[in-house]
Specification:
With about 260 residues, the protein is of the alpha/beta class. The chain has 9 helices and 8 strands. The longest helix has 17 residues. The protein is globular, with a radius of gyration of 18 Å. The termini are far apart. The chain binds zinc ion (ZN). Zinc ion (ZN) binds next to loops.
């Protein structure tokens, strides 16, 4: 019960997202309210808005670290796949606690590129467009579900512009899959997917082994831009805290190791 109380701000926090309302260490104090007020705030995110959704919800990024290796973590792109939300909240703390990490890495957290879908619990955005299919890759396929033109959705455009501007060395995007978990990659990321697999037990699933993904973020980032991208598929319905714990070491490794 007490744990539930402590986790409640995180579990309900998809809208009012605070990456450093930590769940674990507050239990050392007496009482949830006291713990919340006395917990050391070692990272206070300064959110920057990179755009707005169809329904005018902010698309927010926060950064930490000052290393040469630039990594972009995308907390969610399909609104009905929220198993990675604790990972999104906990990754900054884990990086801070890893000696030397902040000198090695500059991490950009995009908390959710599809806040309208998250609010509705739908895969697509408010227009019903899949924001993982709306990019200017060679295989883009115009349709009502994928968008009539690449980047005709404001959320996809904002993410596209962020990646063009920052040119990260690695992009990781959290999803969930209906009946399994695995790590998928596009572009020059096979070694990172293999490393992730070794540390998490998640199998590597090639893009060729999945249904075609025209105009996907992975196709554009990995194949068109030549930037390594990992698509992290948690198991749909998995407890988000457990999902984080079983992938924490793997995520930290690929964030820090080029
Ligand atoms: Zn997905």
């Amino acid at each position: 019960m007490r744990l539930l109380l402590l986790l409640l701000p995180l579990l309900t926090g998809c809208v009012g997202f605070h990456p450093y309302q930590g769940a674990g260490r507050a239990s050392e104090s007496s009482g949830a309210a006291e713990a919340a007020s006395s917990a050391p705030a070692i990272w206070q995110p300064e959110w920057t808005e990179i755009g707005s959704s169809r329904e005018n919800r902010p698309l927010r990024v926060a950064r930490l670290g000052h290393g040469r290796r630039r990594v972009l973590w995308i907390g969610g792109i399909h609104g009905n796949e929220r198993e990675g939300r604790i990972s999104t909240a906990e990754l900054p703390r884990a990086l801070i606690e890893t000696p030397g990490a902040l000198e090695l890495v500059t991490l950009t957290i995009l908390e959710d590129v599809n806040p309208d879908g998250t609010a509705r619990n739908t895969r697509g955005n408010a227009m019903g467009v899949d924001l993982n299919r709306n990019y200017p890759a060679d295989n883009f396929k115009p349709s009502r579900l994928f968008g009539l033109r690449p980047l005709d959705q404001p959320e996809a455009r904002a993410l596209h512009d962020l990646i063009e501007l920052e040119r990260p060395h690695l992009v990781i995007v959290a999803h969930s899959w209906h009946d399994d978990h695995f790590i998928n990659f596009d572009g020059p990321a096979e070694h990172l997917a293999t490393r992730f697999s070794q540390l998490s037990g998640y199998r590597v699933q090639s893009s060729q082994g999945i249904a075609p993904t025209p105009g996907s973020l992975g196709s554009w980032v990995g194949n068109t831009m030549g930037i390594p991208i990992l698509t992290l598929e948690y198991h749909r319905g998995r407890d988000p805290w457990a999902a984080w714990l079983e992938t924490k070491a793997a995520i930290l490794a690929v964030v820090m190791e080029g």
